[in-house]
Amino acid sequence: MKRPGKPNGFYYLSHQTTDSDHGIITAVTVTPGDVHDSQPYLQQLEYAHKNVVPIKAAAADSAYDFPLAHRVLEEMGIGFFVVPQPAHDRTKAELKRDVFTYDEQQDVYVCPNGKVLRRKQLYRSVSGLFWEYWAEKKDCCSCPLRQKCLNETDKAGARKLQDSYFKPVVQQHFSSRWQPEYREALKQRQIWCEGTFAAQKWGHNLTRVLRRGLEAAEDHCLLSAAALNLKRMIRCLS
User: In whole angstroms, what is the distance from residue 187 CA to residue 1 CA?
Assistant: First the structure.
């Protein structure tokens, strides 16, 4: 595993969904350590929703804030309370995205020089589906801000911006992020999800696996989850 904020080495990741009423683990997926947290999320949530218990709402940390999750959970009728990812502008240009103004009525972006970037095409990548907004090449060629706005690799081109295809539903979910219900859901996530992993590592042998291989690691994590679930079920019944 070689990921920011994670130790380097040979690791597995245990991805779990947990009931917020009693802390019962409802699904477990194990992946190699270099698999991003978001990759098994939707499949795991769909499994728990169809085969374990109908899910009314899901809460997650910022690793799960990706546009497709917002769209899929909306279609499934599941509320989504997620910590928003901090904005990362990966362009090397001096003028970043936040200096462009979005005109919602016209569905265009306006650059600092007053020129328009129009929606041009859909772009699909590993991280999702995006609308691309392009400036006119003639506008960029004569722009006094050209050197600050374009990367060295695209001096002959024009500035472009990307917006998620699922931007409306993402904005809809985040419109309530300061509401008490939203904040309470994130609080419960921290208590039950983080607390459950801590309890498993402390008392249910989740710190290290005893056998190599993905299948063996998944068996190990399932047994750890089952042991904790039995204790919590007994507590609920008593």
Answer: 29
